[in-house]
């Protein structure tokens, strides 16, 4: 039997070095585990807070970024759920500007004229005009000529039979004079109000083909809308009360739209120069806001006899309108 050779000194040294390295590695692992165990209780709340986005890390930065996003940067463009459909020179611009103060109302500024002039462009074109809204907000637009457009009720019904309709009405005689005043400011060469009012001045026959007169026959136009929409979906706002008691009329409108009554007396002040209420703070601004110079024009002097004949002409139509709406607007007092 051959005797085993004793390990060389080199081999012994190598083996000792390996054992030492192994011992050092084990020691490092043990120390690391000890440190982790000691720190864990202190770090657990911070880790939980970070997971909830409460730290100043990425979660907090994203939260801050979302807070800084403007409402128009988020949401979805939707077809309007409510429309201000009339009437021209009744106070529709004032009503829209007042309503836009409400945080749950988003409205187009310009008049789209979709259901009277641009219907051929289609609903997608119409939707693209709308502002983005969040869940719970109402999309609106106003085009006063809808009320006197024969095709408008059927077209709106085809879009949505649930659409809520708002009509701002005003004493039809005053409305006709205001309508004429607007046209006169653009075309100073037009005939006088008196000559346009009558087909025959001698007989006193009123020219109902003149749009300024025809728009004010509210009962006739309402008949057309009631072919498609129940009265419960139509709200009539008094143009006179919108001036004398804006908060009161806005309260009715907010109720009709299912909104919380946020717009109140504190939002208005009366401008003596213009003769109607203005907003203390407009939408997206900290400054007072009144309607532009095209609103509140001074009316020309109209022959009192012509005014009286117009009042006599409108009286039976007004009475029928009062009966239809269940509200006496006081134009014949």
Describe the structure.
The protein is α/β, with parallel strands linked by helices. The chain contains 12 helices and 11 strands. Strands 3-5-2-6-9 form a 5-stranded parallel sheet. It has a two-stranded antiparallel ribbon with strand order 1-4. A hairpin with a 4-residue loop joins strand 10 and strand 11. 27% of the residues are buried.
Strand content: 5-15%
Strand order of the largest sheet: 3-5-2-6-9
N-to-C series of helices and strands? HHEEHEHEEHEHHEEHHEHHEEH
Q: Compute the average pLDDT.
A: 83
Say how many strands there are.
Answer: 11
Gyration radius, in Å: 36 Å
Shape: globular
Biggest sheet statistics: 5 strands, parallel
Q: Helical region count? A: 12
Helix content: 40-55%
Structural class: alpha/beta
Low-confidence stretches: 1-5, 32-69
Beginning-to-end CA distance, first to last residue: 140 Å
List the helices and strands and how they pair.
Blueprint: H1 9-51, H2 58-68, E1 76-77, E2 82-86, H3 92-99, E3 105-107, H4 123-129, E4 132-133, E5 138-142, H5 152-159, E6 164-169, H6 172-186, H7 193-197, E7 198-200, E8 205-206, H8 211-214, H9 218-225, E9 234-238, H10 239-244, H11 246-256, E10 268-271, E11 276-279, H12 304-325
Parallel strand pairs: 2-5, 2-6, 3-5, 6-9
Antiparallel strand pairs: 1-4, 7-8, 10-11
Helix pairs in contact: 9-12
């Amino acid at each position: 039997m051959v005797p085993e050779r004793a390990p060389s000194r080199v081999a012994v040294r190598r083996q000792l070095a390996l054992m030492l390295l192994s011992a050092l590695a084990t020691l490092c692992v043990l120390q690391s585990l000890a440190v982790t165990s000691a720190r864990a209780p202190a770090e657990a709340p911070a880790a939980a807070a970070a997971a909830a986005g409460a730290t100043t890390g990425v979660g907090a930065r994203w939260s801050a970024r979302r807070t800084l996003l403007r409402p128009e940067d988020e949401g979805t463009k939707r077809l309007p759920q409510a429309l201000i459909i009339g009437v021209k020179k009744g106070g529709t611009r004032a009503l829209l500007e007042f309503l836009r103060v409400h945080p749950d109302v988003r409205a187009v500024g310009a008049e789209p004229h979709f259901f009277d002039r641009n219907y051929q462009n289609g609903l997608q074109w119409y939707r693209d005009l709308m502002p983005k809204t969040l869940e719970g907000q109402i999309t609106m637009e106003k085009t006063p000529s809808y009320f006197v457009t024969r095709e408008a009720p059927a077209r709106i019904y085809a879009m949505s039979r649930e659409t809520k309709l708002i009509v701002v009405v005003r004493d039809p005689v005053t409305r006709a004079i205001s309508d004429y005043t607007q046209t006169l400011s653009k075309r100073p060469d037009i005939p006088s109000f008196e000559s346009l009012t009558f087909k025959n001045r001698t007989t006193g026959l009123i020219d109902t083909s003149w749009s300024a007169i025809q728009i004010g026959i509210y009962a006739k136009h309402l008949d057309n809308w009631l072919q498609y929409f129940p009265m419960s979906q139509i709200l009539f706002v008094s143009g006179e009360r919108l001036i004398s008691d804006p908060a009161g009329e806005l309260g009715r409108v907010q109720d009709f739209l299912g909104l919380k009554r946020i717009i109140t007396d504190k939002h208005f002040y009366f401008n003596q120069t213009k003769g109607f209420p203005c907003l203390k703070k407009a939408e997206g601004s900290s400054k007072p806001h009144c309607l532009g110079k095209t609103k509140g024009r001074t009316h020309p002097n109209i022959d009192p006899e012509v005014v009286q004949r117009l009042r006599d002409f409108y009286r039976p139509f007004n009475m029928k309108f009062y009966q239809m709406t269940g509200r006496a607007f006081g134009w014949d007092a």
